[in-house]
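Researcher: Go.
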Amino acid sequence: MYANINATILHEIRFAAQHLCVVCVLTSAFMKKNVLITGGSGLVGSHLTQLLIQNGYSVSHLGRGKKADKYGIHSFEWDPARGYMQPGALDQADIIVHLAGAGVADEKWTAARKKLIIDSRVQSAQLLVSEMQKTGKKPEAFISASAIGWYGMVTGERICPETDAPHHDFFGECCKLWEESVNPVAAMNIRVVKLRIGIVLARESGFLPKVAAPVRWLAGSPLGSGKQWVPWIHVADLCQMFLQAIEQPSMQGVFNAAGPQHLTNKEITKAIGKALHRPVFLPAVPAFALKLALGEMAQMIVNGTRISNEKILATGFKYRFPTIETALADLLG
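Model: Structure:
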């Protein structure tokens, strides 16, 4: 009798164990991975964090403050200038998205500021490489931000593809050093994607609020000649590009991250006026006035390059906001 009971119990235990193993295998198959984001509290990082969570990913941040944000994201501490990273930061990272870097348009470009802009990008990438080599923790993919500044602060009709050499001005040199600092990651047999980001349009900060504010008060006007190109992209489309770079194993190398519509500064300013139902009638702000006010940084505003997006389109990427009208209707409507 007891032998029969024990045999029955043993059978049930084996059945339950087998069932549990099947459940675990199925669960792990559908579980999304952990993404570690540097610069996760910034404009792009905060939007990307939300998108990843919505798509079932586990997200953590690597930043200067150890805290949990409003989404409950754990943040590991680091200080690239001192070469410090909190132990364990890379342990659970299946993917690293590297966005960290001092704001390019936050302050005038003094010699010290220009050094900080470069160092904050290069040193942070070098620290990530160093920690991966030291700990042996290697992610499946490393997705790094770069910028269209690679092509220089110039204005021309030529549409620049990813194969162009970096320009010889400050921003071109900055992007060159930025991207080179990531190259050792690829040498570790890790898939690397670099997204050269254009002017990001978002509701809460960046280019759009700064241009829209004077337009609202009937003080909007083009800047410089108004003929300079503004390679723009809606923040949602940019984050979708990062998501695709994470999920599409065939994506590797450099991709321009700008929208399909080529517009000048004057055309975008007029479009913002139309979206806000405000006329834009004032004469353009002269380039010399911008240079007096902003110094060398004014070159970013008075110049602009046309950027090719053929390579990202070839991956199957589809824009949610392909025109300035659809983008502004979402952000200002």
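Model: The first strand starts at residue 34 and ends at 38.
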